[in-house]
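User: What would this chain look like folded?
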Amino acid sequence: MFWDEGNLPAYFMDRWHLEDPYNQGSEWVPGEWPSTRLVDDVGMLYAPSSAWRRNASYVRFKNLEIGYTFEQEIVKSVGIEYIRVYTNMNNVYTWADKYVKPFDPESVSGLFSTGWTYPIMRTVNFGVNITF
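Assistant: Here's the prediction, encoded as structure tokens.
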């Protein structure tokens, strides 16, 4: 978390933290995740723990293309031999544990690359194929 002062998924906001972050003597407020630190000595934050072990199983609907080819009789009347319109999508949806989903389960993220990955991008394209 906060590797090289990077961003975190929103669910990491539920972590152990000081009631007053500017007072080291204030009470600890419990959370689901360990407290985060921005210093070199992070203590046990990166030690193997069940807190970091998640079910990384996933199912991904990766590609979808829908198209329509117009009847030749209709398009020939306007001087076109062939016309097809289409749309396609990449990375349509991924079903995964809510803690794993912000990361790409197909990319390698080991000890020193975790959190350096860019979120999965969904792309949508529209097109027309025309033959005169």
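The chain has one helix and five strands. If you want, I can go into more detail on any region.
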